[in-house]
Structure prediction request, 132 residues.
Amino acid sequence: MLKNEKGITMLALVITVILVCLLAAVTISFSLGEDGVFSKSRRINFLEDISELQKELSEQEVLARANGKSNDTIKTNLEKTLDEWLEAHQSYKDFTFELRLNDKEDTFILTYISGGTEEEENWLNTVNFPRE
Prediction:
């Protein structure tokens, strides 16, 4: 005799649990993986911060040149701005940057020397950031 019972079978329950586990694994992989959402977000924030610094230094240099400042004065002011920026952005405290004069164009270039994680160094390489 078969009873007309309502409810789920053990097989249906096992299949549902397996599907939920697979979906969770895929979601975690996309979120936390090497090229996951969180990694991409950190990379974008990092590169935006560095770009912001370069823009700030470039604008300050243009204004100083327009006011007839010497290269020594400009470099001193840019180094002060760089130090202040690094102080304000504590997540970059381990980074070492240097301002170098590009003789051909008579402009200063922000150059990466050291610091940060290997991942952050690779990110700088992907955008051809000047290195020592």
User: Anything to note?
Assistant: The mean pLDDT is 86. DSSP finds four helices and two strands in the chain. The first helix runs from residue 10 to 32.
